[in-house]
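User: I want to check something. If I give you two sequences, will you return the structure for each one separately, not as a complex?

Assistant: Yes, each is folded on its own. Here is the first sequence with its structure:
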Amino acid sequence: MEEVKNFLTDIIDADIAAGLNEQIHTRFPPEPNGYLHIGSAKAIYINWSIAQKYNGKFNLRFDDTNPVREDDEYVQSIQEDIKWLTGEMPNGGIFYGSDYFETCYDCAVALIKAGKAYVCDLTQDEIREYRGTLTEPGKNSPYRDRSIEENLQLFQDMRDGKFPDGSKTLRAKIDMASPNMNMRDPAIYRIVRAHHHRQGDKWCIYPLYDFAHPIQDALEGITHSMCSIEFENHRPLYEWVVDNCPLPHHPKQREFARLNVTNTVMSKRYLRQLVFEHHVEGWDDPRMPTLCGLRRRGYTPSSILEFVRRAGIAKANSLVDIRLLEHCIREELNETAIRRMAVTEPIKMVITNYPEDKTEVFTLPNNPKDETAGSRDVPFTRELYIEKSDFAMVPPPKFQRLKPDGEVRLMGAYIVKCNEVITDENGEVVELHCTADLETGNGMPVDGRKVKGTIHWVSASHAIDADCYLYDNLFTLENTGDVPEGKDYLDFLNPDSLKKLTGCKLEPSIAAVPTGTRMQFVRMGYFIKDTEDGRYNRIVTLKDSFAKTLQGK
């Protein structure tokens, strides 16, 4: 892996030089309430690659402190995605925030005993009202000065289930006049009766993330808690918790910019809505920015990590063009993907001067860029299929494919000339009658003439049937974080984000290709074999509009 260096590694280098850390220890703390997406890949990459750089440890810790939407399905999917993306399970171990509930409770009790936390009866609306504004300080809760003894008893009663959900919270006693709104006596425990995926019904009170997370980091020995930039204003509270709770270690929180990508959404709330309202096929729909969706689409772990690396690690938020992601996978597959011929919108071509009962075999390379990839045999017969777009009755300017009385090269085979066009009652072309120059086999003309056009083809009697799924951006709006007033992000769902082509004709060697194999369908794009029963997903087209942008930099 390429040397990792960014402003976060500069911070770590300085800490090591100052003797603050001997072994670097990072973590990735997803909430198991949905599937990971490409924004998650950035957080994984940062924490995993930095741990590798310093021969340190990298933990996976599930932030399962909110039982309402959490599920073991998401726990399993997250582990699968991390192993797929990095090629390994976290070397520091797999942990669950819920395993620390007892310690979190003990820390809360310690805060109460120190006069730094109190049980509050204000409703959520009242808490917001008391909180103040960015320009005006908040005011103290009328319950802020309860005695330590009363708070200890009330908190124990909260744990024992003696109060209704939402009727009380435990709040940190900090400063209602703080310029940082997060420090104005934030809630650190709430009452929620919900079945927990690991703890069952043992608890009816749950710590809030801002309280539980620094405790979990400290207990695991995390040295650098690296999180997205929206937590920057939460850092003083993070430090307050580790300073005021009886913890064995003092981790350091630092923040980086989130990964925002054009023409898609990253909010887990929006992703859940897309799935549960059936705007997409599921979490693994190849149009989704989820890692499982990208995997099914045909993206590789290396292409995603390369995209994250090229997008950069910085503190300033930015919007990254989705074409950079496409460029990364296209660049990789151009070197590695096997080549195959596939006709996605077929019309029949009959070679009238070729024997009806003859089958000839032409040998074509698996990848012209890689001699070690070998070759495969492709059968040639009298009846073939070619791409509908490779023929034009009235060709546009500079059209170099087949036309009436025109000639083209059949890739790796003969030069053919179109002599007759068969149409149906609607005037649609259904069949072409051609003659082949049988002296031009194996791609080599013998008479010195040049034919500009080369098209792909498939033997009609040997072709396998398939469905090809062509994908485009999920949203027509480039920046889905900036939806125009009066509009909803769903208003910008792309109606053409999926095009299904049935009745496609593929060369027979594709039948033996394992599911999950990535191929270039020559001249048509890069595809992955999605299912054994004939579904092929297009990963990206061959045209790379972003390459010119990169060359211009």
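And separately, the second sequence with its own structure:
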Amino acid sequence: MTELRVSVTEEKFPAARPAEPRSEVIMHYDRDRSIPSIIAEHAAANPTSVALVFEGRTITYGELERLSDRLAAYLIREGVQKGDIVCLFVPRSPETIMAMLAILKAGAAYLPLDTTFPIEHLDYVIGECEPKVVFVDRETVRTIRSVPNARGAVVDMFALLQKLTVAADEIRPEVTVGGGDMAYVMFTSGSTGRPKGVAIAHRGIARLALDQNYIKLTKNDVMLHAATIAFDASTFELWCALTNGCTLAILPDGNFSVARLRDVVGENGVTVALLTTGLFNLLADYPGSALPSLRHMFFGGEVASVEHVRRFQKTCPDCRVTNAYGPTEITVLATTFDIPAGFDGNDVPIGRVVEHTGILIVDEELRPVPAGVEGELMLTGDGVAIGYFKRPELTAERFVTIEAPEGPLRGYLTGDLAVLDENGSARFKGRVDRQIKLNGKRIELDEIEAALRRDPRLADGVVICQTLGPQNKRILGYICPQGGAAADAAELVRGVMERLRNALPAYMIPSVVTVLDQLPLHQSGKVDRSKLPLPVDAAPTATVPITNQTEAVLLDLWRTVLGIQAVELDRNFFDLGGTSLQLMRIHAALESNLGRPVDVVALFEHPTISGLARFLDDRAIAGARAMSPAERAALRRKTMSQFRGSAS
């Protein structure tokens, strides 16, 4: 159902959205409708309204509809049929969003992949999904050609869309797509040793965006798009904006920093944003200039920090702040909690369920337990995924049906422990398994261990998560060489780490790896992880020979951010276990300390304290070698693919 209203509004940010009479189309949730059909109504009512903003470019709803129609017609001509998979191995951009919409119009599902994923990971995922088409750009095509299982048509998406822009209008063949059809497959870490693809239906997305209790979007809103397309936060950003007739402001993929994030928010009048908890905390610590346009900030992915919420609310007192919870299998969000000003609790609840969603706390026999009793959190409703792609056994294990008063009820067992209060608000109490969250990324420690055990040089390998501080965790690895003691432990670690980086996303790589002759065991024969020796880097091994004030500043920043003291001036930041989010924290603190902007690419070019200090001291930022945007993006992808922890 839709409502059609015509109104004239005074635009607060005319550069982003033209001030003109427009029809306001209010869409209501219909579980049987497809995402393209909803967006088409906005395009028909307001063809000149701005849908996408990117580095000064604007794409209207009419242009988005027309170009995605042409691209959908191309896909159908190329043999893409309903239910097929089309892979997106491209960065954030307007063209990427056009391609997503076109794929859905063709009746297919999109498979978004992070452009920094290693070859072995890409090979497994692409081999599992067998996409008919793989969209690339001039940079990523080189990577995809190295993937053995990339047998579908490899197409330069940007070059193709340039041709389609000047092509004659073409009527897209009609493909009947409903709410229950698959819209995308998104891969998450898997406890069985391999990543698993979550298949999401159109209705899961529509239920997230329409007739909701946790958010009210209007045609005047501008949504930030800052998540990598392989992270399910992008689902919220893209489709909540476009199914509500809003503008989507896209953060460029390269040169990502807190300052750049603030600039995009300020320049485009962003009103709504969803950030990972780590990135939200970073924004709270380094608020910079005021962001008056921002009216609603969501964050989630890890346990909330009350102190960071208070800092953010002090800087942005008029902005509503919401803690959001939800696994990929429930289509991004399941519960939310609006944090009031002056909140004085010790921990932030994950809150009450959003519309079209149900929540239960169940015991080991899958029987619902009453309020106040801890158990496993089970989620139901239209956001529940179709299942795990081509994994029927795993689907049957996690997507279960229980008997309820209203009849059989299908839901997803999250593996999260929680408790409901009398008002139906949930509090997170931990995990029932070995899954962790690091920088907003879901990581199954068992998958890392399985990758270690595939290394022929090792008799065994295990990993644990070490907490260094309230907001600082890292993965520690322990390996046992084949045949007992290693002849050269350092060389073994280097080889094992290189193999891991070729097999796993960078955010799953252990920060420190320790070689042991054997692992400590319980009497039962299982590994006793409590007896694994912690690294000795918590304290400095020797006095670090500081030569100037810049090195002293950087050393202090590295120690604080990494949570370790044993930092050498010539050690690579990423080899010490640093992640991209931690590097962003160092970048923000460095700019604050120096009182001047620092190009974030410099931190990737000079990843040691001594090298970065020389760069900062010897070369003024304005005098640095000029790099084109393409060079900077290529450098960032190369560096991050080798070392980084988590993308923005």
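Because they were folded independently, the notes below concern the second chain alone. The longest strand covers residues 407-420. Residues 6 and 22 are 6 Å apart (CA to CA).
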